[in-house]
Amino acid sequence: MNQNPNTQRILGGLYGSLVGDALGVPVEFAGREARQKDPVLGMRSYGVHHQKAGTWSDDGSLLLCSVESLVEKGFDAQDMGERFLQWFELGHWAAHGFVFDIGIATRQALLRIREGTPALQAGGRGLYDNGNGSLMRILPVALASLDLGAPEFAERLSQASAITHGHARSQMACVFHGLVVRGLMQGASPQEALANAQADFHRLYADADELGTFRDLLRSDLASQPEIHIHSGGYVMETLTASLWCLLTTSSFSECVLKAVNLGDDTDTTGCVAGGLAGLHYGLDAIPAEWRLTLPRQQDLKSLFSQFEKTLHPALA
Prior knowledge:
single chain, 14 helices
């Protein structure tokens, strides 16, 4: 495809997220040992959720709801939360029109929105509300916020997280991810993007109580950590760390996303987040066409992403 680098990165990030999610859906919850014995090498049919090959999960659906909200309303947390509720109740932006998977914290937050709680107050704020359910959908908000200064950028991503995950740790994880996204969109290498994100993050949160939680992500040697030290469950810090580690330790989109899925456990979300980052870095054309074309709703995706990409030109000028 003959596209400019920004378009390649944007579409790579969006399609890459969905592809990574779909690669992980059939093997979600199985541990690393199962993947070592039977590694995922491409799209699979059925599996744990009994879905067709290419089916994205709640991760992809909420990411797509986020894109649609940003296209139609700009950043409006209430509108975004209500679209998430449409997905939950009506299958809006589900791959096949119905919901087959949802995280506990996200479900609780959406029930609060249904009952009238403002979206910005809906996300749980307890220590055990730090699953990866806001991180998995934050990429479009980061892409739509690139023209903001660092404090405003951080506040925007924190608000987007708070719709379902309101604890400071989840909000800060989304900001950290967003800072890496910013670097990748500027053409930095993964290592450069991470180093710049670490410096910006430290400046933003130098006095934050949660800063110590991020010590592993603030290390300069993340890429040299052995796989045994990389965990891939549903905890937000595990997903963020594993996704970045996969990006840093591979040299192609396919290698990155398959490495992420084959870590096991929360395979769809690790695949989704790693796939989004790898798609930004390597671009749309680096995603195997047979994977991308396995995704359902091809025309819907093309139309939505085209509209979204057009809204971003001012931010990327």
